[in-house]
Amino acid sequence: MEKRELVIIGAGPAGLSAAIYGRRAGLDVLLLEKGVPGGQINITEEIENWPGVEHATGPELAAMFRSHAEKFKTEFRDVDVSAVEVRDGTKVVLTNKGEIEAEAVIIATGAYFRRLGCEGEAEHIGQGVSYCAVCDGAFFEDEEIAVVGGGNTAVEEGEYLTTFASKVYIIHRRDEFRADRAAVERALSNPKIVPVWNTVVEKIEGDGMVENLVLKNIKTGEVSNLPVAGVFMFVGQSPHDEPVRGLVEAAKGGWIKTNDEMETSVEGIFAAGDVRDKGLRQVVTAASDGAIAAMSASAYINEQVHLRSVLLDPEHVTALFYSSIDREQVKLSDEVEAMARDAGKKVALVDGYKNARMVEKLGLPSLPAMVELASGKTVKMAPVADASAAGTFLK
Ligand SMILES: Cc1cc2nc3c(=O)[nH]c(=O)nc-3n(C[C@H](O)[C@H](O)[C@H](O)COP(=O)(O)OP(=O)(O)OC[C@H]3O[C@@H](n4cnc5c(N)ncnc54)[C@H](O)[C@@H]3O)c2cc1C
Protein backbone atom coordinates (compact mmCIF):
# COMPACT_ATOMS: atom_id res chain seq x y z
CA MET A 1 0.00 0.00 0.00
CA GLU A 2 1.15 3.54 -0.73
CA LYS A 3 2.64 5.13 2.44
CA ARG A 4 2.73 8.89 3.04
CA GLU A 5 3.62 11.13 5.95
CA LEU A 6 0.78 13.68 5.90
CA VAL A 7 -2.44 13.17 3.97
CA ILE A 8 -4.76 16.18 3.86
CA ILE A 9 -8.36 15.62 2.76
CA GLY A 10 -9.87 18.70 1.11
CA ALA A 11 -8.12 21.52 -0.77
CA GLY A 12 -10.13 24.48 0.50
CA PRO A 13 -8.47 27.33 2.42
CA ALA A 14 -7.88 25.03 5.43
CA GLY A 15 -6.32 22.17 3.43
CA LEU A 16 -4.24 24.46 1.21
CA SER A 17 -2.90 26.38 4.23
CA ALA A 18 -2.12 23.08 5.96
CA ALA A 19 -0.25 21.95 2.83
CA ILE A 20 1.85 25.16 2.77
CA TYR A 21 2.76 24.81 6.44
CA GLY A 22 3.30 21.06 6.15
CA ARG A 23 5.65 21.40 3.16
CA ARG A 24 7.58 24.23 4.80
CA ALA A 25 8.02 21.98 7.86
CA GLY A 26 9.64 19.45 5.53
CA LEU A 27 6.83 16.91 5.46
CA ASP A 28 5.86 14.68 2.55
CA VAL A 29 2.36 16.08 1.88
CA LEU A 30 -0.38 14.55 -0.24
CA LEU A 31 -3.45 16.76 -0.74
CA LEU A 32 -6.62 14.94 -1.80
CA GLU A 33 -9.45 16.87 -3.47
CA LYS A 34 -12.57 15.58 -5.18
CA GLY A 35 -13.56 18.90 -6.76
CA VAL A 36 -11.79 22.12 -7.65
CA PRO A 37 -9.00 23.27 -5.28
CA GLY A 38 -10.14 26.37 -3.41
CA GLY A 39 -13.30 24.85 -1.95
CA GLN A 40 -16.22 27.13 -1.19
CA ILE A 41 -14.38 30.27 -2.25
CA ASN A 42 -14.76 29.06 -5.83
CA ILE A 43 -18.46 29.88 -5.53
CA THR A 44 -17.88 33.20 -3.77
CA GLU A 45 -18.43 36.24 -5.94
CA GLU A 46 -16.28 38.73 -4.01
CA ILE A 47 -14.03 38.51 -0.96
CA GLU A 48 -13.16 41.64 0.99
CA ASN A 49 -12.11 40.24 4.35
CA TRP A 50 -9.00 38.19 3.59
CA PRO A 51 -6.25 40.39 5.07
CA GLY A 52 -3.77 41.79 2.57
CA VAL A 53 -6.11 41.44 -0.40
CA GLU A 54 -8.57 44.31 -0.35
CA HIS A 55 -10.74 42.82 -3.04
CA ALA A 56 -10.71 39.63 -5.10
CA THR A 57 -13.22 37.31 -6.67
CA GLY A 58 -13.44 33.91 -4.99
CA PRO A 59 -11.87 32.05 -7.95
CA GLU A 60 -8.99 34.59 -8.03
CA LEU A 61 -8.23 33.98 -4.37
CA ALA A 62 -8.58 30.20 -4.85
CA ALA A 63 -6.02 30.33 -7.67
CA MET A 64 -3.60 32.32 -5.47
CA PHE A 65 -3.97 29.76 -2.65
CA ARG A 66 -3.39 26.90 -5.05
CA SER A 67 -0.32 28.37 -6.69
CA HIS A 68 1.12 29.18 -3.25
CA ALA A 69 0.74 25.51 -2.22
CA GLU A 70 2.24 24.43 -5.57
CA LYS A 71 5.24 26.71 -5.03
CA PHE A 72 6.14 24.50 -2.07
CA LYS A 73 5.71 21.38 -4.24
CA THR A 74 2.54 20.05 -2.65
CA GLU A 75 1.35 16.94 -4.43
CA PHE A 76 -2.34 17.24 -5.41
CA ARG A 77 -4.48 14.23 -6.25
CA ASP A 78 -7.96 14.30 -7.76
CA VAL A 79 -9.80 11.67 -5.67
CA ASP A 80 -12.95 11.25 -3.61
CA VAL A 81 -12.25 10.04 -0.07
CA SER A 82 -14.91 7.66 1.23
CA ALA A 83 -13.47 6.85 4.64
CA VAL A 84 -10.58 6.99 7.05
CA GLU A 85 -9.93 3.83 9.03
CA VAL A 86 -7.57 2.95 11.88
CA ARG A 87 -6.25 -0.58 11.40
CA ASP A 88 -4.06 -1.84 14.27
CA GLY A 89 -3.13 1.76 15.06
CA THR A 90 -2.34 2.56 11.40
CA LYS A 91 -4.35 5.27 9.67
CA VAL A 92 -5.62 4.29 6.23
CA VAL A 93 -7.35 6.70 3.82
CA LEU A 94 -9.80 4.98 1.45
CA THR A 95 -10.34 6.69 -1.90
CA ASN A 96 -12.02 5.82 -5.20
CA LYS A 97 -8.50 5.27 -6.58
CA GLY A 98 -7.03 3.08 -3.84
CA GLU A 99 -5.88 3.09 -0.25
CA ILE A 100 -3.16 5.24 1.30
CA GLU A 101 -1.44 4.67 4.62
CA ALA A 102 -0.67 7.90 6.47
CA GLU A 103 1.39 8.82 9.53
CA ALA A 104 -1.08 11.66 10.12
CA VAL A 105 -4.31 12.82 8.49
CA ILE A 106 -5.88 16.28 8.41
CA ILE A 107 -9.62 16.41 7.72
CA ALA A 108 -10.28 19.70 5.91
CA THR A 109 -13.43 18.71 4.04
CA GLY A 110 -15.39 21.88 4.82
CA ALA A 111 -19.11 22.40 5.03
CA TYR A 112 -22.04 23.41 2.88
CA PHE A 113 -25.04 25.67 3.27
CA ARG A 114 -28.36 23.96 2.76
CA ARG A 115 -30.25 25.43 -0.16
CA LEU A 116 -33.84 26.58 0.14
CA GLY A 117 -34.58 24.93 -3.21
CA CYS A 118 -36.92 27.55 -4.65
CA GLU A 119 -37.01 28.68 -8.27
CA GLY A 120 -34.36 31.31 -9.08
CA GLU A 121 -32.13 30.49 -6.08
CA ALA A 122 -29.26 28.73 -7.86
CA GLU A 123 -29.02 31.35 -10.66
CA HIS A 124 -28.75 34.22 -8.16
CA ILE A 125 -26.08 32.80 -5.81
CA GLY A 126 -23.52 35.59 -5.53
CA GLN A 127 -25.97 37.89 -7.35
CA GLY A 128 -27.97 38.81 -4.26
CA VAL A 129 -28.59 35.32 -2.87
CA SER A 130 -26.21 34.73 0.04
CA TYR A 131 -25.73 32.25 2.87
CA CYS A 132 -23.28 34.27 4.94
CA ALA A 133 -24.00 37.65 6.59
CA VAL A 134 -20.37 38.30 7.63
CA CYS A 135 -19.25 37.62 4.06
CA ASP A 136 -21.81 39.64 2.12
CA GLY A 137 -23.69 41.95 4.50
CA ALA A 138 -21.53 44.98 3.68
CA PHE A 139 -22.60 44.81 0.00
CA PHE A 140 -26.15 45.88 0.99
CA GLU A 141 -25.53 49.31 2.56
CA ASP A 142 -28.88 51.20 2.81
CA GLU A 143 -30.71 48.54 0.78
CA GLU A 144 -33.82 46.57 1.73
CA ILE A 145 -33.07 42.87 2.05
CA ALA A 146 -34.68 39.65 3.27
CA VAL A 147 -33.62 36.80 5.51
CA VAL A 148 -35.18 33.33 5.27
CA GLY A 149 -35.36 31.15 8.39
CA GLY A 150 -36.57 31.26 11.95
CA GLY A 151 -33.84 29.72 14.11
CA ASN A 152 -31.04 31.40 16.05
CA THR A 153 -28.85 31.94 12.98
CA ALA A 154 -31.63 33.65 11.01
CA VAL A 155 -32.63 35.91 13.89
CA GLU A 156 -29.10 36.80 15.01
CA GLU A 157 -27.71 37.26 11.51
CA GLY A 158 -30.84 39.23 10.57
CA GLU A 159 -30.07 41.61 13.39
CA TYR A 160 -26.41 41.83 12.35
CA LEU A 161 -27.53 42.72 8.82
CA THR A 162 -29.37 45.81 10.12
CA THR A 163 -25.87 47.32 10.58
CA PHE A 164 -25.84 47.75 6.81
CA ALA A 165 -29.35 47.37 5.41
CA SER A 166 -32.11 49.96 5.80
CA LYS A 167 -34.70 47.22 6.34
CA VAL A 168 -34.45 43.45 6.95
CA TYR A 169 -37.54 41.29 6.35
CA ILE A 170 -37.30 37.95 8.17
CA ILE A 171 -39.44 35.45 6.27
CA HIS A 172 -40.50 32.47 8.37
CA ARG A 173 -42.90 29.64 7.63
CA ARG A 174 -44.31 29.65 11.18
CA ASP A 175 -45.92 32.38 13.29
CA GLU A 176 -43.06 32.60 15.81
CA PHE A 177 -39.28 32.23 15.72
CA ARG A 178 -37.53 29.09 17.07
CA ALA A 179 -34.57 31.15 18.32
CA ASP A 180 -33.64 31.86 21.98
CA ARG A 181 -36.01 34.24 23.69
CA ALA A 182 -33.33 36.92 24.25
CA ALA A 183 -32.36 36.88 20.57
CA VAL A 184 -36.01 37.08 19.50
CA GLU A 185 -36.74 39.99 21.86
CA ARG A 186 -33.69 41.90 20.61
CA ALA A 187 -34.63 41.34 16.98
CA LEU A 188 -38.30 42.20 17.38
CA SER A 189 -37.46 45.43 19.19
CA ASN A 190 -35.18 46.50 16.32
CA PRO A 191 -37.13 49.00 14.16
CA LYS A 192 -35.26 47.88 11.00
CA ILE A 193 -36.51 44.26 11.35
CA VAL A 194 -39.87 43.31 9.86
CA PRO A 195 -41.01 39.70 10.46
CA VAL A 196 -43.08 38.11 7.70
CA TRP A 197 -44.92 35.21 9.35
CA ASN A 198 -46.44 32.03 7.87
CA THR A 199 -44.70 32.70 4.59
CA VAL A 200 -42.42 30.86 2.16
CA VAL A 201 -40.37 32.12 -0.79
CA GLU A 202 -41.71 30.62 -4.01
CA LYS A 203 -39.44 32.34 -6.49
CA ILE A 204 -36.47 34.70 -6.67
CA GLU A 205 -36.60 37.13 -9.58
CA GLY A 206 -34.17 39.62 -11.07
CA ASP A 207 -32.40 40.35 -14.29
CA GLY A 208 -28.83 39.60 -13.13
CA MET A 209 -29.06 40.77 -9.50
CA VAL A 210 -31.97 39.89 -7.19
CA GLU A 211 -34.84 42.38 -7.53
CA ASN A 212 -37.95 40.67 -6.22
CA LEU A 213 -39.19 37.73 -4.12
CA VAL A 214 -42.46 36.01 -4.87
CA LEU A 215 -43.93 35.03 -1.49
CA LYS A 216 -46.78 32.77 -0.50
CA ASN A 217 -48.68 32.90 2.76
CA ILE A 218 -49.12 29.24 3.70
CA LYS A 219 -52.20 29.96 5.84
CA THR A 220 -54.19 32.07 3.36
CA GLY A 221 -52.55 30.96 0.09
CA GLU A 222 -52.11 34.63 -0.85
CA VAL A 223 -49.21 35.31 -3.24
CA SER A 224 -47.36 38.66 -3.03
CA ASN A 225 -44.21 40.41 -4.24
CA LEU A 226 -41.43 41.71 -2.01
CA PRO A 227 -38.93 43.95 -3.85
CA VAL A 228 -35.49 43.45 -2.20
CA ALA A 229 -31.85 43.77 -3.32
CA GLY A 230 -30.73 40.57 -1.59
CA VAL A 231 -31.87 37.52 0.28
CA PHE A 232 -29.91 35.62 2.93
CA MET A 233 -30.80 31.96 3.43
CA PHE A 234 -30.33 30.61 6.95
CA VAL A 235 -31.94 27.22 6.60
CA GLY A 236 -28.96 25.30 7.92
CA GLN A 237 -25.32 24.41 7.36
CA SER A 238 -23.81 20.90 7.54
CA PRO A 239 -20.24 19.55 7.65
CA HIS A 240 -18.72 17.21 5.06
CA ASP A 241 -17.84 14.79 7.83
CA GLU A 242 -18.68 11.65 5.85
CA PRO A 243 -15.13 10.15 5.75
CA VAL A 244 -14.77 10.19 9.56
CA ARG A 245 -18.38 9.88 10.70
CA GLY A 246 -18.46 7.56 13.73
CA LEU A 247 -14.65 7.49 13.94
CA VAL A 248 -13.91 10.83 15.63
CA GLU A 249 -15.93 12.60 18.29
CA ALA A 250 -18.38 15.13 16.91
CA ALA A 251 -20.89 17.66 18.20
CA LYS A 252 -24.60 17.58 17.27
CA GLY A 253 -24.93 17.87 13.51
CA GLY A 254 -21.60 16.12 12.83
CA TRP A 255 -19.25 19.07 13.46
CA ILE A 256 -15.86 17.56 14.39
CA LYS A 257 -14.60 18.31 17.87
CA THR A 258 -10.94 19.31 18.28
CA ASN A 259 -8.78 20.94 20.92
CA ASP A 260 -6.73 24.11 20.28
CA GLU A 261 -4.06 21.97 18.56
CA MET A 262 -6.71 20.75 16.06
CA GLU A 263 -6.36 17.21 17.43
CA THR A 264 -9.51 15.10 17.15
CA SER A 265 -10.38 12.33 19.58
CA VAL A 266 -8.31 9.90 17.45
CA GLU A 267 -4.53 10.04 17.74
CA GLY A 268 -2.86 11.30 14.55
CA ILE A 269 -6.11 12.55 13.00
CA PHE A 270 -6.51 16.33 12.97
CA ALA A 271 -9.36 18.53 11.68
CA ALA A 272 -9.25 22.08 10.31
CA GLY A 273 -11.62 24.64 8.84
CA ASP A 274 -15.39 24.70 8.46
CA VAL A 275 -15.80 20.99 9.23
CA ARG A 276 -14.82 21.75 12.84
CA ASP A 277 -17.17 22.53 15.70
CA LYS A 278 -16.45 26.29 16.00
CA GLY A 279 -17.99 29.74 16.00
CA LEU A 280 -16.79 31.62 12.91
CA ARG A 281 -16.56 29.80 9.57
CA GLN A 282 -14.52 32.06 7.27
CA VAL A 283 -11.49 31.85 5.00
CA VAL A 284 -9.25 33.47 7.60
CA THR A 285 -10.25 31.05 10.38
CA ALA A 286 -10.00 28.04 8.03
CA ALA A 287 -6.46 29.09 7.03
CA SER A 288 -5.49 29.56 10.66
CA ASP A 289 -6.84 26.12 11.59
CA GLY A 290 -4.95 24.59 8.65
CA ALA A 291 -1.66 26.12 9.79
CA ILE A 292 -2.13 24.89 13.36
CA ALA A 293 -3.21 21.41 12.23
CA ALA A 294 -0.13 21.06 10.00
CA MET A 295 2.27 22.08 12.76
CA SER A 296 0.55 19.73 15.22
CA ALA A 297 0.71 16.94 12.65
CA SER A 298 4.40 17.67 12.09
CA ALA A 299 5.11 17.47 15.84
CA TYR A 300 3.09 14.24 16.02
CA ILE A 301 4.92 12.65 13.08
CA ASN A 302 8.34 13.61 14.44
CA GLU A 303 7.41 12.19 17.82
CA GLN A 304 6.14 8.95 16.27
CA VAL A 305 9.19 8.50 14.03
CA HIS A 306 11.55 9.19 16.93
CA LEU A 307 9.74 6.92 19.37
CA ARG A 308 9.46 4.16 16.81
CA SER A 309 13.19 4.18 16.13
CA VAL A 310 14.07 4.36 19.83
CA LEU A 311 11.42 2.10 21.34
CA LEU A 312 9.47 -0.02 18.91
CA ASP A 313 11.92 -1.01 16.16
CA PRO A 314 14.88 -2.39 18.21
CA GLU A 315 14.90 -6.11 19.00
CA HIS A 316 15.48 -5.35 22.65
CA VAL A 317 15.32 -2.09 24.60
CA THR A 318 14.97 -0.92 28.17
CA ALA A 319 13.46 2.51 28.74
CA LEU A 320 12.79 4.87 31.60
CA PHE A 321 9.67 7.00 31.25
CA TYR A 322 9.84 10.12 33.40
CA SER A 323 8.14 13.49 33.58
CA SER A 324 10.20 16.49 32.45
CA ILE A 325 8.13 18.84 34.61
CA ASP A 326 9.00 17.01 37.83
CA ARG A 327 12.47 17.96 39.16
CA GLU A 328 12.86 14.71 41.15
CA GLN A 329 12.07 12.61 38.06
CA VAL A 330 14.55 14.58 35.91
CA LYS A 331 17.20 13.88 38.60
CA LEU A 332 16.22 10.21 38.57
CA SER A 333 16.65 10.08 34.78
CA ASP A 334 20.23 11.39 35.16
CA GLU A 335 20.95 8.80 37.86
CA VAL A 336 19.50 5.95 35.79
CA GLU A 337 21.52 7.02 32.75
CA ALA A 338 24.74 7.06 34.81
CA MET A 339 23.88 3.72 36.45
CA ALA A 340 23.25 2.07 33.08
CA ARG A 341 26.48 3.49 31.63
CA ASP A 342 28.46 2.08 34.61
CA ALA A 343 26.82 -1.31 34.09
CA GLY A 344 27.58 -1.24 30.36
CA LYS A 345 23.87 -1.19 29.52
CA LYS A 346 21.74 1.17 27.44
CA VAL A 347 18.56 2.78 28.68
CA ALA A 348 16.34 4.94 26.48
CA LEU A 349 15.11 7.99 28.37
CA VAL A 350 11.63 9.06 27.28
CA ASP A 351 9.80 12.14 28.46
CA GLY A 352 6.46 10.58 29.35
CA TYR A 353 4.94 14.00 29.99
CA LYS A 354 5.43 15.04 26.35
CA ASN A 355 4.72 11.56 25.01
CA ALA A 356 1.56 10.80 26.94
CA ARG A 357 0.13 8.76 24.07
CA MET A 358 3.06 6.34 24.17
CA VAL A 359 2.67 6.04 27.96
CA GLU A 360 -0.96 5.14 27.35
CA LYS A 361 -0.13 2.79 24.48
CA LEU A 362 2.35 0.84 26.61
CA GLY A 363 -0.10 0.77 29.51
CA LEU A 364 2.28 2.42 32.01
CA PRO A 365 0.18 3.09 35.13
CA SER A 366 2.20 6.08 36.40
CA LEU A 367 5.51 7.95 36.04
CA PRO A 368 8.36 7.29 36.60
CA ALA A 369 8.31 3.75 35.23
CA MET A 370 10.67 1.38 33.46
CA VAL A 371 9.78 -0.90 30.64
CA GLU A 372 11.56 -3.65 28.72
CA LEU A 373 10.44 -4.12 25.12
CA ALA A 374 11.26 -6.77 22.51
CA SER A 375 10.43 -5.62 18.96
CA GLY A 376 7.76 -3.28 20.30
CA LYS A 377 6.18 -5.86 22.64
CA THR A 378 6.27 -5.26 26.40
CA VAL A 379 8.27 -7.94 28.23
CA LYS A 380 8.37 -6.35 31.65
CA MET A 381 7.33 -3.09 33.27
CA ALA A 382 7.38 -1.57 36.74
CA PRO A 383 6.94 1.78 38.43
CA VAL A 384 10.30 2.93 39.80
CA ALA A 385 10.10 5.29 42.77
CA ASP A 386 13.86 5.82 43.09
CA ALA A 387 17.32 4.92 41.75
CA SER A 388 17.50 1.71 43.76
CA ALA A 389 14.22 0.43 42.25
CA ALA A 390 15.57 1.35 38.82
CA GLY A 391 18.80 -0.53 39.60
CA THR A 392 16.80 -3.64 40.55
CA PHE A 393 14.85 -3.41 37.27
CA LEU A 394 18.10 -3.13 35.29
CA LYS A 395 19.59 -6.34 36.80
C1 LIG B 1 -21.23 31.81 -1.18
C2 LIG B 1 -20.19 31.90 -0.10
C3 LIG B 1 -19.59 33.11 0.17
C4 LIG B 1 -18.58 33.21 1.13
N1 LIG B 1 -17.97 34.40 1.34
C5 LIG B 1 -16.94 34.49 2.21
C6 LIG B 1 -16.25 35.73 2.40
O1 LIG B 1 -16.55 36.74 1.77
N2 LIG B 1 -15.23 35.72 3.29
C7 LIG B 1 -14.86 34.62 4.01
O2 LIG B 1 -13.91 34.71 4.78
N3 LIG B 1 -15.52 33.46 3.87
C8 LIG B 1 -16.53 33.36 3.00
N4 LIG B 1 -17.23 32.19 2.85
C9 LIG B 1 -16.87 31.06 3.74
C10 LIG B 1 -15.57 30.40 3.29
O3 LIG B 1 -15.63 30.11 1.91
C11 LIG B 1 -15.34 29.14 4.10
O4 LIG B 1 -15.31 29.46 5.46
C12 LIG B 1 -14.02 28.46 3.73
O5 LIG B 1 -13.99 28.16 2.36
C13 LIG B 1 -13.83 27.18 4.54
O6 LIG B 1 -12.67 26.56 4.10
P1 LIG B 1 -12.42 24.99 4.34
O7 LIG B 1 -11.10 24.70 3.71
O8 LIG B 1 -12.64 24.65 5.73
O9 LIG B 1 -13.58 24.25 3.55
P2 LIG B 1 -14.08 24.32 2.05
O10 LIG B 1 -13.80 25.63 1.43
O11 LIG B 1 -15.49 23.86 2.11
O12 LIG B 1 -13.18 23.24 1.29
C14 LIG B 1 -13.32 21.87 1.54
C15 LIG B 1 -12.80 21.08 0.35
O13 LIG B 1 -12.84 19.70 0.67
C16 LIG B 1 -13.26 18.95 -0.47
N5 LIG B 1 -13.85 17.70 -0.01
C17 LIG B 1 -14.94 17.53 0.77
N6 LIG B 1 -15.17 16.22 0.98
C18 LIG B 1 -14.21 15.55 0.31
C19 LIG B 1 -13.93 14.15 0.13
N7 LIG B 1 -14.68 13.21 0.70
N8 LIG B 1 -12.89 13.81 -0.65
C20 LIG B 1 -12.10 14.76 -1.24
N9 LIG B 1 -12.32 16.09 -1.10
C21 LIG B 1 -13.36 16.47 -0.33
C22 LIG B 1 -14.31 19.88 -1.11
O14 LIG B 1 -14.47 19.55 -2.48
C23 LIG B 1 -13.69 21.25 -0.89
O15 LIG B 1 -12.88 21.65 -1.98
C24 LIG B 1 -18.21 32.06 1.87
C25 LIG B 1 -18.84 30.83 1.61
C26 LIG B 1 -19.79 30.75 0.63
C27 LIG B 1 -20.44 29.41 0.32
Automatic annotation (TrEMBL):
Q: Which GO terms describe its cellular component?
A: cytoplasm
Q: Top EC class per UniProt?
A: oxidoreductase
Query: FAD/NAD(P)-binding domain spans which residues?
Result: 5-290
Q: Which cofactor does it need?
A: FAD
Write the protein's name.
Thioredoxin reductase
NCBIfam families associated with the record: TRX_reduct (TIGR01292)
* GO molecular function terms listed in the Swiss-Prot or TrEMBL record: thioredoxin-disulfide reductase (NADPH) activity
Species of origin = Aminivibrio pyruvatiphilus
Task: List keywords of the entry alphabetically.
Answer: Disulfide bond, FAD, Flavoprotein, NADP, Oxidoreductase, Redox-active center
Q: Which reaction does it catalyse?
A: [thioredoxin]-dithiol + NADP(+) = [thioredoxin]-disulfide + NADPH + H(+)
> Gene3D superfamilies of this UniProt entry?
FAD/NAD(P)-binding domain
GO BP: any one term: removal of superoxide radicals
Recite the UniProt cofactor note for this protein: Binds 1 FAD per subunit.
Q: Which InterPro entries match?
A: FAD/NAD-bd_sf (IPR036188), FAD/NAD-binding_dom (IPR023753), Ferredoxin-NADP_redctase_2 (IPR050097), Pyr_nucl-diS_OxRdtase_2_AS (IPR008255), Thioredox_Rdtase (IPR005982)
Quaternary structure annotation from Swiss-Prot or TrEMBL: Homodimer.
Q: Name one Pfam family in it.
A: Pyr_redox_2
Q: Which family does it belong to?
A: Belongs to the class-II pyridine nucleotide-disulfide oxidoreductase family.
EC number(s)?
1.8.1.9
